[in-house]
Amino acid sequence: MMRFLLKLNILLLVISLVGCGLNSPAKKPQDQSPNQQIKQVQFDPQLANDIKKQIKTINGVKDSTVVVMNKEISAAIKVTGFHRFRLKSIKEEVHQKIKDMNKDYTVRVTSDKKLFKQLRQIEKQVEASPQKAPPDIPLQLHKINEDMQG
To answer: Is 76 helix (H, G, I), strand (E, B) or coil?
Structure first.
């Protein structure tokens, strides 16, 4: 019986010590050093719509989605039927048309269906509120851009 009580006391002591460690205050975002600067992110839905209009003029492109963040243009296209046989040349034509319109921008174009869907979701969020887009969008967009081939 005495051993049981001793083990119980030790167990309660360990639990209370571990529990106190979990309740320690977490660092707050304002505790960060002042040297860390938050980069301002700007979206341009108007430019994105202008680019989409230009992409629609290219033969074989069924649909497109475009997001413009800072000086980066991310575009995804859907190509119809037999035009998929010349997918590479269509992507190059889309890329060149966007680049000609916006020489100071980095341009990325994809025809990947999964990336199209992800980019479309971001486009809708940005169109809904370009000034107050969710803070995780730049990270999502960066990941999509890394996954693009061109």
So the answer is: strand
Q: Is residue 141 within 8 Å of residue 109, measured between CB atoms? A: no
| Residues 65, 76 contacting (CB under 8 angstroms) | yes
CA angle 72, 77, 83 (to 5 degrees): 140
Question: Which residues 6+ apart lie within 8 Å of 70 measured at CB?
Answer: 41, 42
Domain 45-147 CATH class label: alpha beta
For residue 98, what are the contacts with CB-CB under 8 A and spacing of at least 6? 51, 54, 55, 73, 75, 105, 107, 109
Digit-coded pLDDT (tens) for 94-129: 999 999 999 999 999 999 999 999 999 999 999 888
CA distance 63 to 120: 11
